[in-house]
């Protein structure tokens, strides 16, 4: 122990006690997902590219976009000939308005002016009836005295009856104007209105099928048809491809032998032949649940196996990656964890060397 200072002796003793005089244990094995994994994939919009197709047979009369155009959800991409449906929809709209007005008029009742006019007519009829009654009473009295003929009395009686009948008619007419509508009439008007609405909705639905709309906010990635071309719905004719380029992701094919070594949240690096000096950071956000065939294969590699089962994984790219849709890329998992394991192993070897030196110093 010659030349061994007390401080150095205490440090070596502490290191030896920590290990109980035994050899240093091996470095801990890395977790399963820390194994280096490489795979291939394709760039796509985070919303997935949406292929828009025709649902009716006809000729495209209007294309409202070009490739690269920005669109919002609901924007019309293309319009298929629909002049006949436009005419039918106009007629259905007119019929619907008429039925709506019929029901409203029935529920609202007569106008105030009509009711006022009917009341005035009733008062006039009552006045005429009063005058006719008085005339009849006077002529009846005179007839009893032989002052007027029986014919004059009979005429006065007829005039009274006519005036009273007219008065009753005016009273009934006023009663109809101020009375609420019958339940049956309202039900019929309501049924007519619903039928008109259903007809209009049917034609509007047929018209809507002639409009090819974007389901998302995004960019027109590809146009397959132009104005003047004919499209069909059996099978549906593709017209355009739309995707949201504000966020990109990679659909990766993970080999069946590597599925145990990836995890959601794991960092990966994306490279492509077109960007030899660049790599792009991504994060695994979704891992599939079922193995299946490869989603794609590189045409420039005839030796690539096609019978390999793969598990699909989705990788979100950080914003700003200038990668075109459909670009084949290579995916490699983050290597920092691997480096940490190597550093830990080196540290363990250094501690082992210290323990050996300590035992040598003690003469063991």
Summarize it:
The protein is α+β, with helices and mostly antiparallel strands and 364 residues long. Helix content is 42%, strand content 23%.
What does this protein look like?
A hairpin with a 2-residue loop joins strand 11 (267-272) and strand 12 (275-287). The protein has six helices and 14 strands. A six-stranded antiparallel β-barrel has the order 1-10-13-12-11-14. A four-stranded antiparallel sheet has the order 2-9-7-4, with no helix packed on it. The protein has 364 residues and is an alpha+beta fold. The protein is 42% helix and 23% strand. The longest helix has 33 residues, at 112-144. The model is unreliable at 8-14, 17-33, 336-352 and 354-359 (pLDDT under 50). Among the domains are: 6-32 and 339-362; 33-49 and 244-338, Efflux pump adaptor protein, beta barrel domain (Elongation Factor Tu (Ef-tu), domain 3), CATH 2.40.30.170; 110-180, Helix Hairpins. Helix 2 (83-108) packs antiparallel against helix 5.
